[in-house]
Amino acid sequence: MRTFAPLLMVVLILLGSTFPLDSYVDERTDTEIIFTPDGRIFPSHWYHPKINATAVPLAPVERNRFIHIINRAFAKYPDQVLREHLDRIYALKYMKFYGIPFGGTNVGNTVFISDDESNPSFTDSYIEGVFHHEFSSVLKRSFPAFLNSNVWEAVNEPTFTYGNGGVYAIRTGEASLALNPELYPSGFLTQYSQASVEEDINVFAQNLFSGEKSFWEIVERNPKIRRKAQLLIAFYQKIDSRFTESYFRRISHANPPKIMAGNRN
């Protein structure tokens, strides 16, 4: 029976059955996708009683779907950008900090994403958006000189002050990612955007990469939104010259374009 085990595993994967392994390496980018939180996957101080980090492995039945979603997200970046700035993704059923579920987070060149298959809110587009959201923080740390936070903040009304960060917003129930038309004139897409400069940038990145036609209609109708979109596009274009506005307008959930391998600056 052992002789046929590897062949059976391949057949199960090809047929769309449950993914039997605890990790997977994307051949195009060398990124490891890990489905089980074995050991201490978060920084050590996150396990102290105050934060009390906990995580539950992604169900085997959900792993093929997650890989499909991430492959679609990866197709929107040059290979070299992912190889150099993304080491691994932890795909988990859920993770909690401060006793509260978090959809995503990032540390160093690692991204953590929740995907609760029993929760209808975890759609393909939502999960892909979380990846772009978190990876934008990774890239901003890698290229701190490419996006000036002061220039970004200058787009806001002079009287506006950001909140106390994303963690505080989540803990206080002020972290909605739903597009909010009342905030557009002030330059914000969602309630969560107002938590910090980083979260504001993250939400724009999420929509640049996975937003649909409605996002670009918002950009065209609201000068402050358009200015922030331009600043973020310029940031990505400094990373790779192919990240133009026309490129971002072309990509969509359903049909991401093929982007050439390598990095061209």
Verbal overview:
With 265 residues, this protein is an alpha/beta fold. Helices cover 41% and strands 12% of the residues. The chain has 10 helices and 7 strands. Strands 1, 2, 3, 4, 5, 6 and 7 form a 7-stranded mixed β-sheet that branches. Helix 2 packs across helix 4 (124-142). The longest helix is centred in the middle third of the chain and has 19 residues, at 124-142. 33% of the residues are buried. Residues 1-16 have low confidence and may be disordered.
Helix and strand topology:
Elements: H1 5-14, E1 23-25, E2 32-34, E3 54-57, H2 60-74, H3 79-85, E4 88-97, E5 100-102, E6 104-107, E7 110-114, H4 124-142, H5 149-153, H6 166-171, H7 197-210, H8 213-221, H9 223-239, H10 245-250
Parallel strand pairs: 2-4, 4-7
Antiparallel strand pairs: 1-2, 3-4, 4-5, 6-7
Helix pairs in contact: 2-4, 4-7, 7-9, 8-9
Offer a concise description of the structure.
The chain is of the alpha/beta class and 265 residues long.
Please describe the structure with a list of short key phrases separated by commas or semicolons.
Collagenase (Catalytic Domain); 265 residues; alpha/beta; 7 strands
Major beta-sheet overview: 7 strands, mixed
Number of strands: 7
User: Which class do the helix and strand fractions yield?
Assistant: alpha/beta
CATH topology: the name is Collagenase (Catalytic Domain)
Named CATH architecture: 3-Layer(aba) Sandwich
Radius of gyration, in Å, reads 19 Å
Q: Which class in CATH terms? A: Alpha Beta
Q: What's the overall geometry? A: globular
Element string (H = helix, E = strand): HEEEHHEEEEHHHHHHH
**Number of discrete helical segments:** 10
Mean of pLDDT = 87
